[in-house]
Amino acid sequence: MLNVKDNKTMMYTDLAVEIQEECSGRQGEIPGVVLEQYKEDGKGIRVTKIQIQTADGAKRMGRPIGNYMTLESADKEHSNKHSDKNLSGTKLPDTNLLASYINGLLPSSAHSFLIVGLGNANMTADALGPLTIEKMAQSGMASYTSMIVPGVFAQTGMESCEIIQGIVQQTSPDCIITIDALAARSAFRLGTTVQLTDTGIRPGSGVGNARKGITKENMKIPVIAIGIPTVVSAAAIVSDAMDSLKQIGYNETILGSIAMLDKEEYYQLISEVFAPELGSLFVMPKNLDEELDTMSSLLAASLSQVICKR
């Protein structure tokens, strides 16, 4: 559902902020979508809140009506240019800050939770959810909190949605919290961005392999989805590289007519060149296994703090 298409372009991303940037770049202000951006003083974190209020806004964004929050490094743009930092080596929000935003998104009446670690624990780029659950289990949780790693369809032969529905029927939690690794449009958002939403999640949709949604409509209780991007399409990386060449002064003499294209036109061109052989190629940072330890620890600590105070 989040494959944002423009003619032959298919932009793979799980991040609402990137969809908003893409749509507003082509259409200007998006009717039915409210955008708020600000920086957390002294935290080095920029917050983007997107509220999709109408069916028209949802159609334009390719996302359900609801609230989407993105917390990312405020110096992301600065670190993009000629920096020797790792792509995923910039700042994430601290535990207290992230916990406060998670708590603000949860229903005030929710006191019992089912926490779901989505993804494949045997695949580094998809292991964020299972790792977070593992760390929460190690720290111990309240008796009114259940946790599950449902695996993926290829492992179990069952949809994660169906497994979770069965658990909900047996345990009757007030709310579901899902954790999943996401796909980003920009390589510079890998490991630097946390997305929170109250619209649930459709596992695999960011890489064009959507499964049945874990949503309030299917579960009959609120679903909060938390994710951090760990992969980006190869086409997006090449597109960003071409855009960077343009920004640092390479002109038509070197780039030819390509220099006249804007960022999204770069992406469309590269996508067409890559397809079909390399169209489904996604890339992760080489040190992602190390970064996952930091990401999962942050999510586990933040969730534990929120739940223990309920």
UniProtKB/TrEMBL annotation:
* Keywords attached to this entry: Hydrolase, Protease, Zymogen
HAMAP family, alphabetized: Germination_prot
Q: What does the UniProt record tell us about how this protein is modified after translation? A: Autoproteolytically processed. The inactive tetrameric zymogen termed p46 autoprocesses to a smaller form termed p41, which is active only during spore germination.
Propeptide residue intervals: 1-14
**What biological function has been recorded for the protein in this entry?**
Initiates the rapid degradation of small, acid-soluble proteins during spore germination.
State whether keyword Lipoprotein applies: no
Give the family per the record. Belongs to the peptidase A25 family.
What's the name of the protein? Germination protease
NCBIfam families found in the cross-reference section: GPR (TIGR01441)
Classification via SUPFAM superfamilies: HybD-like
Task: List its EC numbers.
Answer: 3.4.24.78
Gene name on record? gpr
What this protein catalyses is: Endopeptidase action with P4 Glu or Asp, P1 preferably Glu > Asp, P1' hydrophobic and P2' Ala
Quaternary arrangement and interactors, per the entry?
Answer: Homotetramer.
Q: What is the source species?
A: Anthropogastromicrobium aceti
**InterPro entries given for it?**
Pept_HybD-like_dom_sf (IPR023430), Peptidase_A25 (IPR005080)
Q: Name one GO biological process term.
A: spore germination
Instruction: State the Gene Ontology terms under molecular function.
Output: metalloendopeptidase activity
